[in-house]
Structure formats: C-alpha cells, structure tokens
Amino acid sequence: MKRKLSTSSRSVLNSGLTEDYKKAIAEYIWNGFDAGATCVEIRYTANPLGGVDDLWVIDNGSGINYGTLDLTFGAFLDSNKIQSFQRSSEVRGRKGKGRFSYNVISGGASWQTKYKDDEGVLKQYEIKIYSSDRSEYDASEPESVLVAEGQETGTAVHFLDMRSNLVEDDLTSDSFCNYLSSEFAWFLELNKSKGYAIKIEGVVLDYRNLIGETEEQTIEIGEESFRINFIRWSRKIGDKYYYYLMNSNLREVCKVLTSFNNKSTTFHHSVYVTSQYFNKFEWDKEPGARLDGLYNQSHEAYEAYKTLMKRLRAYLSKKEKEYIRAVGAAQLIAQYEKDGILPKFSDDKYGKARKKDLVEAIQGIYAVQPKIFLKLATEQCKTMVGFLNLLLDSNERNNVITIIESVVHLTPEEREELAATLRTTTLSRINSAISLVKNRLIVIEGLKKLVTDNEKFTTERDHIQKIIEENYWLFGEQFNLVTADKPFTAALMEFTYLLDGKVEKGSFTAEDARRRPDIFICRGQALPGYQYSSFLEEQIIVELKRPSVVIGTTQLRQIQDYRDIILKEPTFNSQMRRWKFIVVGKEVDESVKNEYKSFADKNRPMLVHYRENFEIYAMTWDDVFVTFEHRENFILEKLQFDKQMIHNEVEAYAKSREGSDALTKDILSLNTK
Q1: What share of the chain is helix, strand, coil (3-state, %, to 5)?
Q2: Do 610 and 468 share a structural domain?
C-alpha cells in the first residue's frame, strides 16, 4: 500500500543527504543498533567484474513496528528515533534522513522487517522506497510468522537498482574497515560485554587496533553515580576530543570539549560518561553549544555537574601524564638518543645513574608541559638539555622552573607538579645512593664469609678475583678499571688508550709481558703536595691471594716485580703519576710486619716500600674491610643500617664450594658503583 511522506521529493534531495557510500552504510548500521540490535551484518554479491550487484545491511534488532510506521517513515525530519539511542550530536538515525541515504548507493531500498506486535505475535512485512518518487513509500500488509528455531526480530535493508560505481573492493578495503572502526569502535567497546558486533560477509569487524587503552570506573557525587569509560585511541579519529555525556539509555545528551585539544601530543582520547543524572536533560542543539539545560535545574544538580567536570579533568590529566611518560616521553628520549642531543655519560654505574636522573627529569617536565621540547631545532634542544643536566648536578635544581617559565607559561598547578617532579628525581637519587651503600655492605660481609668461614672452598680466580674486578671501589673511589687478570702488554695498550686514545705496545721482555696483574685501576685527581701541577694520575695494581696464603717475602717479591716492570717501561714511568702496588691476603708474616716498622715514619699504614712516586702495601682482608668502614663511617652512622641483619643474610650461604659459588654470583648481581 502506498503511503505519503510529510514532505516533497525535492525537499528530501535538499535536506543534506550524504554523498559518501561509507557514511551511507554507517547510517543504516546505526539504525540497526538504534533498534536494539546486538549484531549488524553487511552482505553483498559481486559479479565477475567485481561490481556489487546486491547489498544488504541486516540487523537482529526489534524490527519496525507496523503500528508506528507513519511516525517512522512518514514524518520526514521528525523521526521518533529521537526518543531512543543516539550516537552523537550530529545526525545519526534522527530526523528521519538516514533511511534516504541509499541514494548514493542505489536507486531504491526495501526494508524486510520482523517485529513483535503489542500482543507478542511475530510478524513480518516489507517497505520499499524508490528514488523516482521519494515523497511516498510502499508498505505491504504485515503477516504472522510461524516461529521456528532461529527466527527472531530484525530488519534486512536491501539496496535496489545498484549504482555501477560501487565495487567489491569498496566493501573489503582497509579504508572502509578503518572508517567503520573509527565510527563504531567506542560503541562496540562500551557494549563488548553484551557481544555487540559488526560483520562483513560473516567476518567480525576488528576494531581493537584502534584502541590503545581502556579504563572504566565509577564516580560518586552525592546521590548521583556516573560510569566513566575512558578510551585512548591509537590514532586520531576525529577533529576534537570530547567528554560524551549520555543518559541511562546511552543516548548522548551533550558533548563537552576536553582541555587537551590544543596540546601537541599524540594523546588521542574520548571519555564517555553514562548516568541517570542526564535522563532529565534534553539536548537538541549544535555541537559545541553550552549545556544550558543544566542551568534550569536545581542548584544541587548544577553543583554536581561542576564537581563531575572538575574530577573528569583531574582524571584525564592523570591519564595524559601516564601516557606521556610511558609512550610520548619514551619516544622523545629515543629521538634525543638518535640525534645525539643527550650529553655523553661515562659507561660506569655512576654515569648511568646521572643519565637516568636527567632522563627522568626530561620525562617529568615533558609530561607537565610538552611544548617546552617541541618545535626546537637540534642545537636548541642540545642547549636546553645541557643546561638542565648542569642544574640537576648542582644545588640549583629548583631554578629549572624559572628557566622553563621563561620559555612557556606554567599554570600554578603545572608549577607545583613540576616542582614535585624535581623533588622526586632528587629522592630517586637519594634512594639509589642508600641502596648502593647497602649493597656495598653486603659485598663486605660476603667477602668476609668467603675468606674466613668458606676458606677451604674459595679460590682466587673463581671467587675473589671476580668480586674485586666488579668492586674495585674497595681501594678508592672514582677509579676506572684498566684490566683484570691480563698480561702487561694488554694492560699497557688499554691504559694508554684510556688516557689519551692512543695504543702503545711498549717494550716488555717476553717474561715481563706474560706477567698478569690481578687488578689494574687508574684515576686522575687533584693531589696535595705536588708543586708542578694540581692534577696527577694515580694508578693501583692489586695482587690477590687465596685465603689460605700468608703474605711473606715471596709474595712481596711478586708485587715488587710489577713495580720493576713499570720502572723499566718509559710509557708508564711519568713523574706526574703515582703508583700503588697492593698485595692482599688473609694474614702477613713477621717479615712483613718488620717492613711496616721500617716505614712507620711515613704515617701510611700497611706500607712496606716507598720510593718517590712508587708505594707498595701489604694488606690483610681485614685491613681492607676496616679501611672501607673508616672511609664510609659518617654515612654508615647516619643511615644506621642493620649490620646484623646483613650478616645473617650472608651467613645463610652454605659452607661448601656450592655456597661460595652462589654467594659470588649474588654479589656480582648487586649495583655497587
């Protein structure tokens, strides 16, 4: 039976119908969800040339009730869908225009629909509209359906007289799938627990690559409850970022711009707020208009809205900073590494700690105000980062805020947040220092265990040598390891390369070249008493003995041989270098104690030989431990470590070769530099 629209065919054409097939199909998908569907499927048939001959959009919604037909199809620009679900403030299944979107695809459309009438009887009928006369539509009489398994309500839109320009590739392309993902991802994600889906020829639309992160929570304000769904998109899906305010039927009441639209970051986001609170408000204005309906409500209702927006802004700010720290700042640091913008740091653990402090500060500042680091030339970036590094290494860390404010304006909240960031990085360094001292105490206790209780199971090469090689701070701070257990030829090459970038092989005899000092370390520092220069290089060669060896004349002769090799090699033998040779064992014999007395006037404990800038020391392991504790006494007292607890932890290792191996392995895993 023919029925008339409440407008003319020309009015339909002039109403602003879409001319994009993707948008047209999306309109019909929204209509399906608007009718309560949980699944909407696109089906088609293609001819051998790839053209689409038939196209359907099929949903399992409630169908079109014949009793409301005049309201649904007859009242153009006055659709009853305004009372049900609606996607956004833009035209989505409202005003009755969506059903005419077939015009871009075909010359007409039919709706084959099944619904349940007021008495619950399943009925079906068909509606047809043709482009030749859009002012009328044809609806058949409804017929009862014999209910069989699998027969439910729903609507199948069949596009008639297909346009020749629509091809199969249009419906299977990444472009089409990406468009549907951008349009429906938020809706499918919010309803994923209900099994909502869009299918194309039986294949479920996979929108998950569009979603970088989701989070759901509830905000309670007085008696009102708001369900918050946060979505961070993996790419930008619209021109603006909004809070979408929806009533309990998921009908959008309003969308409000977030405060992150002008930030130059990749924090693509949407926030969906669902609550019965919004059931009382109607919204029928253009996007971006003010939510005036709230001002007509009670004072309490408006105050709840203001509180909600304040908490949403705080929540979104937190999420943005988490994202920037985890992704944006990491990308910035990676780019700085690639472009050589970060300063060069030494490769030891101290240098790594300084670099970590700088990176954390950059990440924290970037999270507060990304503009500081954006759109800067490479040299400007180097200058900014270089000055920041200098300030972090000084007592002027708080001046970072002053410098930043000379570049960009900081709000009071951003200023406080940045100050907290700088305090955090300071605390991080303090915590690292405390951990370092504790680890050093563990090393001391571990060595005591190895050279006393585990003496029978501890060897020089497998245990002592490995530990000292990683913990040469026992003999002084800020040294660099030259070599460990390598011949003098290799030691000389690495020593000269470390000092000035040159490689010298020296003129060792074959016998001398084979000698292998256990530990060879060096440093440059200002030393008192040298009138020609305030800068002097200090080198230390350490010979380690297994715990059972008592240091006597033989052991001293070995370390003196090392001294003689140095004296004979011109490359080593500069007057601006001071050399220390140390032999370490469990005990020393009487001959060594007599040497101590011979050099007592030098006031240098454990000294057994002295000649100009060459010194030889014989030390017991206990001497090494006491020297460390004396050197670090101030900080150890201030931190008040529970030394007994550390001792008990080390004491738990078995008195066996396996125990020595395990203890050595665990000591080597500690950060002590």
Answers
A1: 45, 20, 30
A2: yes
Give backbone dihedrals phi and psi of 566, rounded to 5 degrees, phi first. -65, -45
Return d(Cα 541, Cα 472) in angstroms, integer. 11
498/495 Cα distance (integer angstroms)? 5
535 and 456 in one domain?
Answer: yes
Q: What is the mean pLDDT of the chain?
A: 79
At residue 537, the pLDDT reads 75
Distance CA(170)–CA(182), nearest Å, equals: 17
The residues with which 519 forms a beta bridge, in sequence order, are 484, 542
Tracing tokens 């030891």 back to the chain, one arrives at 348
CA distances in angstroms from 440 to 49, 417, 647, listed in the order given: 77, 35, 12
For residue 531, which phi and psi values (nearest 5 degrees)?
Answer: -75, -25
For residue 581, tell me if it sits in a domain: yes
Q: Which of 169, 184, 204 is the last residue of a domain?
A: 204
CA distance 23 to 200: 16
- Please tell me the predicted confidence (pLDDT) of residue 201: 94
> For residue 339, is it within any domain?
yes
For the segment 548-603, what is each residue's pLDDT rounded down to a tens digit?
889 999 989 988 888 888 888 777 767 777 888 999 988 999 999 999 999 988 88
Mean pLDDT of 92-115: 75
User: 46 and 186, same structural domain?
Assistant: yes
Check whether residue 623 and residue 482 sit in a common domain. Answer: yes
On whether both 642 and 522 belong to a single domain, the answer is yes
Residue 263 has pLDDT above 80, yes or no: no
Kindly state the tokens that stand for 99: 């059903």
Q: How many C-beta atoms surround the C-beta of residue 19 within 10 A?
A: 10
What confidence score (pLDDT) does residue 94 get?
43
Residues 233 and 199 in one domain: no
Q: At what angle do helices 643-651 and 412-451 cross, to 10 degrees?
A: 50
Output the pLDDT for position 543. 87
User: How many structural domains compose the chain?
Assistant: 4
Q: What is the CATH number of the domain that holds 175?
A: 3.30.565
Distances in whole angstroms, Cα of residue 662 to Cα of each of 388, 451, 458, 482, 655: 43, 15, 11, 27, 11
Same domain, 195 and 216: no
- For residue 336, what pLDDT is reported? 87
Residue with tokens 């919010």: 190
Taking residues 495-501, what's their average pLDDT?
60
- Which of 279, 300, 317 is where one domain is finished? 317
Q: Are residues 500 and 595 in the same domain?
A: yes
DSSP 262: T
- Residue 278 forms part of a structural domain: yes
The per-residue pLDDT for 290 is 45
282 vs 292: CA distance, rounded Å:
10
Residue 221 has pLDDT above 80, yes or no: yes
Confidence label for 81 from pLDDT (cuts 50, 70 and 90): very low
- The token pair at 118 is 């007021």
The predicted structure's pLDDT at residue 395: 58
What's the predicted TM-score (pTM) here?
0.53
Cβ-based burial of 1 (10 A; exposed 0-12, middle 13-18, buried ≥19): exposed
Q: What residue spans of 452-524 are helical by DSSP H?
A: 465-470, 488-500, 510-514
Of 573, 481, 553, the closest CA to residue 521 belongs to: 481
Q: pLDDT of 357-398, one tens digit each?
A: 888 888 877 777 777 776 677 887 887 788 777 777 665 666
Q: Are 378 and 348 in contact (CB under 8 A)?
A: no
In a domain, 673, yes or no: no
**pLDDT in the model for residue 616:** 92
Half-sphere exposure of 530 (CA within 13 A, CB side): 17
pLDDT confidence band for 73 (50 / 70 / 90): low
Measured between alpha carbons, how far is residue 224 from residues 283, 299, 305, 592 in Å?
20, 14, 10, 85
Q: Domain range spanning residue 330?
A: 322-433
